[in-house]
Design goal:
With 193 residues, the chain is mostly helical. It has 10 helices and no strands. The protein has one domain.
Length: 193
């Protein structure tokens, strides 16, 4: 099983969603909806940031600092430094951060504090996922993109793989509203131009 599949199976498990919801004083369905919306949005922005040499190098350094085990995802979330998570989100979204957080709160019915609390857990998790993908990626797959991180790593390609995996997860959810799916289709459309 792929690393992404292992992490997704934990992230979208009933136990994880219930635990995160309990901590956030929210409904598991709201946490699931936020997860389905937020993670592709973070990955999309990371991919944009990594499209320049400078952005790829900056992301590569951040990824190297977040290499950690994700076998126990709830354990990881419980130990997450949320100030670090908030800093990561600031680097990813820049001045758009408050707007992204407000839009996610509006889309999910969660209050802004809950959205921020969950996003600050998801951001370090995504960097750790990238670190794991980087660590286990076959050497021949690291020579694809003109814009690469040091060592020839195609972070944009890895982000694309993760993006596809999470968007597939979202699209398979029958209960999602059409507007949510339409938004994700728009996000994906940008990658195939």
């Amino acid at each position: 099983m792929d690393i992404l599949d292992l992490i997704k199976s934990q992230l979208f498990s009933e136990d994880t969603l219930n635990n995160l919801a309990q901590e956030a004083n929210a409904k598991p369905e709201q946490v699931e909806q936020l997860t389905n919306l937020a993670i592709p949005e973070i990955l999309k922005k990371l991919q944009q940031n990594a499209s320049t040499q400078e952005g790829a190098e900056s992301l590569s350094k951040a990824v190297d600092q977040h290499e950690t085990d994700l076998d126990d995802l709830m354990g990881f979330f419980n130990k997450t430094d949320q100030q670090d998570g908030d800093k990561i989100l600031g680097h990813i979204f820049g001045a758009q951060k408050p707007e992204v957080e407000a839009n996610l709160a509006s889309s999910t019915g969660l209050d802004i504090g809950t959205v921020i609390s969950l996003l600050t857990k998801f951001a370090p998790m995504i960097l750790s996922m990238l670190a794991l993908k980087k660590k286990f990626m076959p050497q021949h797959e690291t020579q694809k993109a003109p814009t690469q991180a040091p060592g020839g790593l195609d972070l944009g390609g890895i982000l694309g793989d993760l993006m596809g995996g999470f968007t597939g997860q979202t699209q398979s959810k029958k209960q999602q509203e059409p507007s949510v799916l339409d938004g994700l289709k728009d996000i994906m459309g940008g990658f195939f131009k």
